[in-house]
């Protein structure tokens, strides 16, 4: 759909997140030899950097291993609201986990919010941290969602959460009601994490980038991890999987208990003012809004358009839909940034945090369902305590093995039926194009040498071919034209246009057929 409120510049041609576009991060070399440490942390997003910061303060030798560049995963592309209001969740939590656990969920996320605020203050990090009220609202004509919103507010009341029902918000739109949760926050996540990283380095912490850790682990006389490239050994006492998708599975079938959900963001300068507040619509289409200061101006980040990774077809339409929404709501002067990213969701919506299995000193943190600012921080704090044998109140709620006790079976079956469908439909796709049909900067599935392959013709006319078969478990990747990537519809692995891994579970590149 063409937005009807077009301004001259339109959407930025290439995706770039405001956070990554406005932060200079230090760079680190690749691990090129065997290495020994107390604690190996795999993954340099909010979870890994926070865990590294915490553990080095306690006197441990800590090594942070990042497969790509620090903060190039989901954390670099988030919307960075820091809140315990995770959409409509408390009424469901009461039903599935009971009132005590629902309260524990709220408390654990609220404590992490406060921990972030205090840590930014303690380290003197200037990261645009502002207190904001969070709102989840329903559209006035969407009776079904309004009923769910009322049930959610009832859960707030029952649990004693500090929410308030409001009939109006400061945005120029009609709502059917909203739950306001006061005293939440927003920040610039990369400036904040750069501060934690510096404190980690000051205490002797070690970082390697471009060092992907392989899924094979040895568990004799301590742990040994291996690098994917070079097979260098990392001997350690404890390992933390902060790699978004767990780098190590340990027979826990995480690929069947997680799915990747993608969403889109625009940072735009509005024509009218934006008073503040962080908003999330519970009605479809889901929309999220927050302010951010940029070059002396107030921009608004509008996000939404969620779908399962690799299962959308045309992806640029999602940006265009957000553009229409933002234009109709506040007017648009310009859009300096657009970006998209994905997060992992567990079958029961509650993250997996804790020790992977009794016999190995490996801890996992994943499944934050687009709420990893608080949940990733919580995971880092919990795991730092668990490694140091300090008992905590939330171990059971977030236990990564709880699936065995409480399968969330309906979602598990639906999710894996969806994977099976994608596996089959990808294999029987029939390409209608050949390489010659491709325009500049266009990608598609094409017929080549009697086979179907993935092809991208870049702006200079050079053609890049890939075998679309995902190196994780063999599903066929789809072309994502707005990011110029090959995305797997099964568990969310993504590859560059020429087949290098952007994010896992896959760790090996796509095979490149001959041109
Ligand atoms: C559109 C969108 C908006 C969001 N908005 C919010 C929000 O407003 N508030 C909120 O709380 N949350 C939000 N989230 C969620 C939040 O951004 C994520 O949950 C969080 O950033 C995840 O952090 P992480 O550290 O676990 O993973 P990541 O940031 O992805 O970091 C993992 C790192 O591990 C590395 N890695 C992976 N595999 C390996 C390997 N084998 N070896 C070495 N390194 C490896 C990756 O390269 C990556 O850098 C949002 C998510 C999305 C998708
Ligand atoms: S991510 Fe699992 S098959 Fe592609």
Automatic annotation (TrEMBL):
Keywords: 2Fe-2S, Disulfide bond, Iron, Iron-sulfur, Metal-binding. InterPro entries: FAD-dep_OxRdtase (IPR006076), FAD/NAD-bd_sf (IPR036188), Rieske_2Fe-2S (IPR017941), Rieske_2Fe-2S_sf (IPR036922), Rieske_Fe-S_prot_C (IPR005805), YhfW_C (IPR038010). Residues 435-515 form the Rieske domain. PROSITE patterns: RIESKE. It comes from the Bacteria. PANTHER family: RIESKE 2FE-2S IRON-SULFUR PROTEIN YHFW-RELATED, SARCOSINE DEHYDROGENASE-RELATED. This is Glycine/D-amino acid oxidase-like deaminating enzyme/nitrite reductase/ring-hydroxylating ferredoxin subunit. It comes from Paenibacillus forsythiae.
